[in-house]
Structures are given as C-alpha cells and as structure tokens.
Fold this sequence. Notes:
Helices cover 30% and strands 21% of the residues. By secondary structure, it is an alpha/beta fold. A hairpin with a 7-residue loop joins strand 8 (150-156) and strand 9 (164-172). Helix 3 packs antiparallel against helix 7 (277-288) and helix 9 (319-327) packs parallel to helix 10.
Amino acid sequence: MKLQICGAAQTVTGSCHFITLDNGYKILLDCGLYQGHEDELEDFNSRWLFKPSDIDVLVLSHAHIDHCGRIPKLVKDGFRGQIICTSATRDLSSIMLLDSAHIQESDAKHNSKRQHKNIKPLYTEKDSKICLRYFTSIEYDIWHPINEFVKVQFLDAGHILGSATVTLKITENNKETVFGFSGDVGRYNRPVLKDPVQMPALDYLICESTYGGKKHEETPESDEKFLQIIKDTILTKKGKLIIPAFSIGRTQEILYRLDKLYTEGRLENIKVFVDSPLAINATDVFIMHPECFDEEMHQFLMTDDNPFGWKNMKYVKTVEESKALNESNQPCMIIAGSGMANAGRVKHHIFHQVDQDKNTILIVGYCADGTIGQRLIQKPETIKIFGIEKKVAAQIEVMSSMSAHADEPELLQFVSNQDKEKLKSIFLVHGELKRQEAFKTALQNNNFKKIIIPELGDEFEL
Length: 462
C-alpha cells in the first residue's frame, strides 16, 4: 500500500491524500481547494499529482472548501467514482460548491477584463451541479463496505455539521490494515455540536495539526468575554461590532450564543445583521440535521424552535442592503464572511469601519498568514485594503474560544486512546510547519513513535 500527500502539506489548506492499494485500487481522502497567496502554490488548484480518472473512490471528511473545493474540477477532469460522506456533509457541500463556482466564474470574468485576455474559471456552476450526482451518503458509526476488501467508518469529528474522522479497514494479502484520517478535529464542550469521538486503534494516522503548540485561551462554553465586547462596543460606545465569520459553523455558533443570551435575559435586543447569503442557506441545512446537535442544543430546542434567530436579527441578502450598513451610523453587530477577512462582504465592512475608534473588529477563528484577519491580529497602526492604506483606530479583539479546531491539549486528548505499539506512523498535515514541529514534539513527549511531517508530493510505502 502506498500513501501520497497531495495537499495540506505544511500549510492549512488544500487537503488531499491519495492511497493506492497493492491490487491497484485507488482511494482519495478529501479534495480541497488551496486558499492563499503563496507563490510556490500558485498553480496548486489547476494541476493534479495523479490522474483523476484513475481514482476509484473519494472519501470526504467534511464540507469546508479547503477539503471539498476541487471536487467539481476532479469530476470535470475525469473522476467517475463514488464520493462518500455523511448526509449533512453532502447537503452542505451542495451549497458550498455552487457558491465556490460562482466565485470562480466572477473572478475569471474580472481578471479577464483587467488583464485583457480570456481567463477561464477553475470550474462553473454547471460543473458543481454535475459533481453532486456522484455523492453517496452514509451515517456515523456504521462500517460501510466500499468493496470486498475496503470498509469505511465515519465518527463525529465535532468540527462542523456533518464533519467526520475517516477509518478504513483494508484487507489485502490476508492482512488487515486500519488506516485513519482525522479530517479536522473539533473542540470539546463546544455549543451546538457533539464532542469529537476518538478513533479505533489504528496502524497509520493522517492527523491535522492546525494548533500544534497552542492552547486556546478561553473555554468553548464561556460567553463572558463575548458579552463584554458587545456591551462595550454597541451599548457604551454606540459603535459597530464587525465579526468576520465562516458561513458554515462559526456563524451558526455565534447566532446560537446570542439567542441563548437573549433568552436568558443577559443581553439587550441589539441589532444583528448576518451579511452572508451563503450563511442563510447553511443555517437552513443546520436546522435539517438535528442528529448532529449535542444534548444542550436539544434541550434548548424544547423552549426555542429557532435557535439561530430572534426579533432584531436580520439576514442581509442583497449587495444594496450590505452597502447600506456601511452608510448607517446605527450601532449594531455585523457578522459576515469570509472568516479570514480576505474576501467577501466583511472586507468591505472592515474597510469602512476600521478607522473609527468606536468600532470593534472581533476575530473568532484561524487566520492564515498574509490574510487581513492575521494582519489585524497583530494590531498594526495602518492596514492596506483594496490598495488603500487605512488607519487602524478600531479596537481589535480575538476570541479563540470560538475556534472550531482543537488546540494541542485537545488533539493529544483525541489521540490518547491509541495503542502506541500498534500505531506505526503518524503523518502530520493541515498545519504551518512551526505548528507541526511543536505538535511532533508533544506527541514524542507522550511516547508516540514515528511522527512524519511530509512535504507536498511525498510518497510512503506502508
């Protein structure tokens, strides 16, 4: 059996891993889009390290674009196998991939005009619709036979709705190998979703390492800092609280926290705008999948049939409505994508509000190096947005408690049940190199043996 690392190597995006069995059967784990501006990865999305038509099956961990975003291109370029995932991941992928295609087409049109040449999108909305034909849904906990020698099991990863760890039982040459892929591991005791479930005893593990060497400052269930930031900005300073948030997962968690605070009488009914058409559709999908909710959420649903909305919360659909928010002086909260603030409507909101000291920009998730979100975390005096240097007068706050990624102690908790004699190798992916090196040291200090930090394209005989 051979493993090739085809994405998320020493970076946090573009998840893609390729397994070839001794009998030639080929399995792809995730097929993510690279999101970033590193020169050496400029052509990552347009090329493959394998032939798409050769892949027999794709197993998808979850619906974030850095894990599913190249699937339409994979099908466009010849893949015709099954795409196996949970039903919630299938539903979220359908809206995510259509939205991604719209962005691809818009960017291609804009760049064609700017560069005076015909630039084609990576894929189109039509391509996204076609790829959905190949999705097959299975649920958590069951062992599903892919064929006579490979079974797959999904366990809840607690990262976003429908997210799963992937365990493959592979039987060849009268020997069973248990191969694991963590996908993205969520946090324990987070609102809305269940906790991550530990994987069975593995022979090999591909493990994410986003927050290696890091510990989140606040516990996931803590609302005190969030409440204080809201009161200081909106009620005291009469300003705007701008929150860059991913449309799937983070936005819904914020809305649930706010709904709960209102229900408990701890927060006045301030104006809240969700400025993300994608988040509107994603929230509908959340409501369709209560099987993914934790016990606290089920208890809350007994008294509140809509945990993601209330009287003064408004979804902003049109560009005109979005622009009007920047022209208004009304104190309010604006939740908008993208989560790293590098694109989308939130970039415009930051551009218009960052130079006013009554406002606050609250970062609630991971921001890759080079993004506007990451630069704001450094609290610079000025920041360039849309080519214009803007003074940073707004308060910049960070809340790691809302991160959907496990920190190092939680990752160690997640793998703590593994048999260290049975587990032959751990491959660290989905992390910047310094985070991976820190997590490697932590694993070694916990008596795990062979820890590998692969480079893009590296191949391993297992």
